[in-house]
């Protein structure tokens, strides 16, 4: 969604073609990200002609300020919904940066890892907006990710297992 | 204008930008090298939106005020005191990831 999409496309901008094919997962209610992604991929295809990507949508796991209890239910629903998609794609790497959409995807990948079906590396990059506190997605995925990247030093102090590389978007 | 697809053209021709504290607005403006005054609306805003605006102000990249102090800020501002905003470095991320995944 919005700012998250812009940030993640910037993160992708310097990645080599080893990171291919790219599977994008969006919330079904997201209207603007698809255009940004297609535009990014189109530009990329100008340099890397073999470039491949796909787009999938999952139910939005949480509305802004949705209550805690109903969020757990909707996130669980989205996680179950994501399982067949994650199973189909069996990603080697999941890269996410905080929209609610990423939690169900990461949880489904984590589950598939526990079941020994596919071990996916989960890399989470907290948004540049987060200077002193983590987003809710961040607080959850801090425990489930293989690499947790923050963009401000205060967060590195508070979350010692995180990686601090400075501003990367 | 209500919602344009992109404010890039308007930003390019502006001498000063006055904006809310949304990250996208702040960063887009700073990256174009335009002086920025961030206006905080205490009543509407999510606390976390303030974090970035405060930090950018602390680091000397933006001026900062609320609705009632905007006029005063405009009258007394010194835009030359603002520091240029260095771009983010996604190449550091790429390099980190390559190493972490053994792809070097």
Automatic annotation (TrEMBL), chain A:
Keywords: Endoplasmic reticulum, Membrane, Transferase, Transmembrane, Transmembrane helix. The keyword Ubl conjugation does not apply. It is found in: Endoplasmic reticulum membrane. Its main location: endoplasmic reticulum. It comes from Sitta europaea. GO terms for molecular function: N-acetylglucosaminyldiphosphodolichol N-acetylglucosaminyltransferase activity. PANTHER family: GLYCOSYL TRANSFERASE-RELATED, UDP-N-ACETYLGLUCOSAMINE TRANSFERASE SUBUNIT ALG14 HOMOLOG. The keyword Transmembrane applies. Belongs to the ALG14 family. This is UDP-N-acetylglucosamine transferase subunit ALG14. It is a single-pass membrane protein. The gene is Alg14. Forms with ALG13 the active heterodimeric UDP-N-acetylglucosamine transferase complex. One of its GO terms (biological process) is dolichol-linked oligosaccharide biosynthetic process. InterPro entries: Oligosacch_biosynth_Alg14. GO terms for cellular component: UDP-N-acetylglucosamine transferase complex.
TrEMBL record, chain B:
The keyword Magnesium does not apply. It holds the Pfam family Glyco_tran_28_C. GO terms for biological process: dolichol-linked oligosaccharide biosynthetic process. Residues 1-90 form the Glycosyl transferase family 28 C-terminal domain. It comes from the Eukaryota. Its main location: endoplasmic reticulum. Its EC number is 2.4.1.141. One of its GO terms (cellular component) is endoplasmic reticulum. GO terms for molecular function: N-acetylglucosaminyldiphosphodolichol N-acetylglucosaminyltransferase activity. Keywords: Endoplasmic reticulum, Glycosyltransferase, Transferase. It is found in: Endoplasmic reticulum. Belongs to the glycosyltransferase 28 family. This is UDP-N-acetylglucosamine transferase subunit ALG13. It comes from Sitta europaea (Eurasian nuthatch).
């Amino acid at each position: 969604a919005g700012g998250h999409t812009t940030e993640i496309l910037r993160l992708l901008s310097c990645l080599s073609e080893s990171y291919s094919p790219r599977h994008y997962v969006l919330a079904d209610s997201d209207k603007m990200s698809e255009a940004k992604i297609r535009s990014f991929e189109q530009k990329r295809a100008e340099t890397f002609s073999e470039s491949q990507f796909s787009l999938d949508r999952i139910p939005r796991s949480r509305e802004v300020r949705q209550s805690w209890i109903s969020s757990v239910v909707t996130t669980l629903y989205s996680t179950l919904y994501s399982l067949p998609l994650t199973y189909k794609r069996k990603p080697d790497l999941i890269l996410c940066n905080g929209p609610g959409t990423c939690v169900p995807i990461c949880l489904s990948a984590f589950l598939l890892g526990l079941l020994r079906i596919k071990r996916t590396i989960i890399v989470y990059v907290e948004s540049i907006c987060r200077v002193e506190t983590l987003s809710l997605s961040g607080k959850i995925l801090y425990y489930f990710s293989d690499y947790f990247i923050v963009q401000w030093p205060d967060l590195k102090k508070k979350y010692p297992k995180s990686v601090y590389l400075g501003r990367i978007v | 204008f209500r919602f344009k697809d992109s404010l890039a053209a308007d930003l390019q021709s502006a001498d000063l930008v006055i904006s809310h504290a949304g990250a996208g607005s702040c960063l887009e403006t700073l990256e174009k090298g335009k002086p920025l005054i961030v206006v905080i609306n205490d009543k509407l805003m999510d606390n976390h939106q303030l974090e970035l605006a405060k930090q950018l102000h602390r680091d000397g990249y933006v001026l900062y005020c609320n609705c009632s102090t905007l006029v005063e800020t405009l009258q007394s501002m010194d835009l030359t005191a603002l520091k240029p905003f260095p771009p983010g470095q996604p190449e550091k991320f790429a390099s980190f990831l390559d190493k972490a995944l053994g792809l070097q």
